[in-house]
């Protein structure tokens, strides 16, 4: 049996009003049309739902048993319709957003901003390197990414900020000033770095920077940025980091800017332009509007 919500709405309204005249007025239809809808429903069910008498209409025992479920069905249909309209307008749904080391502050700030004005949207942040974000944007697993400029020409991307390399040194033993002191620290102290698979874009950036200066590569690796900073603070070596991680460094670590080629890059917002998703475009437009 095909569910016709208009028929069930007719039944519920007559049951609530107690007569066809008031129910037809509420539903903005004629009494004959209303009677036909209910008769069709009763014929399909093979049972009588309403008892018609001189004093109006009231549910039969079968109709009384179905009335509560019919009301629930109509309420669910109304809720679904509202949800569908909100999704179509980009006001509800789920948004998967990627972000990386250079957007540790940027991405959560925009997510919080969007959540404040779109309470029906479920926002999910995923910490991923730019290369993984690019692959998942292309496959549809992500809708938005805060990332380096993608290699794929299929993705749209707009820059939001520029990041740069800095040398993290232990505050307690740092005595130098200026570029000469930084160059000396690069050559003399052990160099620490995040494991390459955790942030391949940053690892490649550091490798290009070191290679251009014919400097020795990484001596020791750490699994996460917090461990890396703790090792620096403890005096076990220096680390090359993005300047945007300053909020993680703490007072035990000094960040010294590095100069020259291969020290700067852009971070932006990326998305698939062919994805017909109003929610994605609403989020991107809000970010780009600043």
Automatic annotation (TrEMBL):
UniProt-recorded Gene Ontology molecular function terms: DNA binding; DNA-binding transcription factor activity
Pfam family, one: HTH_1
UniProt GO cellular component terms: protein-DNA complex
Taxonomic classification: Bacteria, Pseudomonadati, Pseudomonadota, Gammaproteobacteria, Aeromonadales
Keyword Transcription regulation (UniProt): yes
Domain of life of the native organism: Bacteria
Keywords: DNA-binding, Transcription, Transcription regulation
Species of origin: Aeromonas diversa CDC 2478-85
PROSITE patterns: HTH_LYSR
Family of the protein in this entry: Belongs to the LysR transcriptional regulatory family.
Domain HTH lysR-type: 3-60
Record-given protein name: Isoleucine biosynthesis transcriptional activator
